[in-house]
Amino acid sequence: MFPNFLIIGAQKSASTFVHECIREHPDVFMPRDEVAFFQDPDYLEGSLARFEALFASVKSEKAIGIKCPDYLGRPECPERIYKHIPDAKLIVVLRDPVERAISAYYWFMQVGIIPVRPLELGMKDLIDGRYDHQFPRSREIIDYGFYYEHLMRYLKYFDRERILILLQTDLKNFPRQIVSQIYRFLEIDDGYLPKALTRQPKQSVYSLPRLKWLAIANHFFYTYRVDENNMMALHLVENKLSRLCYYLMNGVDRYFLSFVFGNFKDKLSEDIRRAFVEKYKTDVEALEKMLGQELTKWK
Questions:
Q1: Which residues contact 247 (CB under 8 A, 6 or more apart)?
Q2: I need a labelling partner for 234 at 20 to 30 A (CA). Which of 2, 32, 46, 225 fits?
Q3: Is the peptide bond between 88 and the residue preceding it cis, with omega within 30 degrees of 0?
């Protein structure tokens, strides 16, 4: 059995909130964790039988789905998804690409993909390409924000009506209405009210000392593998002792370090922000035409 819908992104754009709202619905079956089956190196090394086993517990649920927000930005994924699930419905949540890049920068530091450095210094090195060789996966921080380019790859295989494109700001301002729209797209009862609608989202960490601590903690939670293209892939560890170390270190952060260091978020300078806006300008303008709406604040 295969899923009939996928949440494909964008990374750091509220896809977890969408996942939780959909997963709660009684007519939906979704694994709790992200499923990276269609991206490298998982697809090349993975087992189709193991992928199908994720859905062995499906009963009478009408909508069967998975979530992996990296799928939108990974060029190898559209063809693979179409090959196995040609009738799939795809859900995409888009966020101001500069704000998304900032959020991804902090997340990449937290999981140890890039070094922990102040926002201004790190983002300047990203835009100048100084991280590309030593930290190749850092390119995703910028590249994942070219939404129009990524969506066009999917539109080579999937009809436009099979792709629901949402904006993160609409989810934030009108969560009930947007969640009902998602339910209608999946052809399930749109009157259902998920508890996730009122649940407070997990707060991101911005404090550099805390990020250094959490980067160490995440090495107990993830395995870090590098493929033939020198791209790092993260996978959850199965060792219970390692996971226990991770949870203990997270507890130290939550109940001690958060009070000592707080959670102050640096502000990106106007010069660096303008450089990012300019980088995304052409893609945003093309996306506006695709969606038929202005994205003024993104520009």
A1: none
A2: 2
A3: no
The reply to whether 67 falls in a domain is: yes
| 213: in domain | no
| pLDDT reported for residue 47 | 85
Q: What angle separates helix 15-24 from helix 175-185, to the nearest 10 degrees?
A: 60
Distance, CA of 70 to CA of 11 (rounded, Å): 6
Helix (H) or strand (E) holding 163: strand 163-167
Q: What is the DSSP letter of 144?
A: T
Higher confidence at residue 238 or residue 295?
295
**For residue 230, is pLDDT > 50?**
no
Rg (CA), the chain: 19
Alpha-carbon span 273 to 257, nearest angstrom: 30
For 66, how many CA atoms within 13 A lie in the half-sphere containing its CB? Answer: 20
Phi, psi (degrees; rounded to nearest 5) at 65: -140, 170
- CATH code, 192: 3.40.50.300
Residue 288 reports pLDDT greater than 50: yes
Residue 215 in domain: no
Q: What is the domain range of residue 181? A: 5-206+265-298
Pairing label, strands 222-226, 89-94: unpaired
This prediction has a pTM of: 0.91
Q: How far apart are CA 76 and CA 80, in angstroms?
A: 7
Examine residue 77 and state whether it is found in any structural domain, yes or no.
Answer: yes
Percentage above 70 pLDDT, the chain: 95
Among residues 14, 151, 2, 10, which one has the least CA distance to residue 66? 2
ω before 41 within 30° of 0 (cis)?
A: yes
Mean pLDDT for 139-159 is 97
Residue with token string 């404090």: 207
Q: What is the DSSP string of 226-256?
A: E-TTS-EEEEE---HHHHHHHHHHHHHIIII
